[in-house]
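Q: Got a minute? One more chain.
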Amino acid sequence: MPSHGLFIAGTDTEVGKTRAAVSVTRALAHAGLRVATMKPVAAGAAATAEGLRNGDAASLAAAANVAADYELVNPYCLAAPVSPHIAAAEAGISIDLGHIVECFEELARRSDCVVVEGAGGWLAPIGERRTMADVARALELPVILVVGLRLGCLNHALLSAQAIEASGLRLAGWIANHIEPRLERARENVATLERLLGGPPLATLPYEALPDEALPYEAPHLSRGHRGAPDSLPLERGQALAEAEAAALLRLVRAACRTAVDET
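A: Always. Here it is, folded:
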């Protein structure tokens, strides 16, 4: 399969993968690319009039500018907010990599780039023997690693980078996400990551307190007839990237996705 997207992985759960993925999606759409999004496996969902809906997947769908049914964006939506392999087992569901690839290929046909967000960390289990790494390998996508800046992030980032490379995939870059209001020696930690990961972050997202309110789930770019009901889901709004960050990201995507979009 030719590379036609980016896989957003994280050093752990709750490190800001969705925030980063939404930010990347909005930046690429703003640059004029047709951008689809995908959350292949999501654990933790709210019941709506149209079925289970996951807030991360809904956030990605709202950020995209390519229409898609929810079932393409999030092929496996699991109710329980636990590890995907446990949630899938409790629901009696076996996660089929072939089905995920089929959904991705349909999204790829409609777009210049598909931004795919993983679940949990790189090796988060999705079944008895498979992990999120198997999903990324099946899609054959370059990986962007989201590093949640907190105590322990250096070890988590380096282990994740080694695991990505051991999987045979390319670590195309990393994003620094400030997830703590005050991290001791934050600048020194980022400098260490730059040295050990081989370069500066593609983007640095500042700390932002989570909103208290849930927003109405009206993802405008889902296909007609597949919009979410007006239930409330916590939608991630992302962060506007600096001009230089957006330009670097666009260069990466043009190479990775082999898009024919003209240079701007």
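A: Confidence is low (pLDDT under 50) at residues 212-230.
Q: Perfect, thanks.
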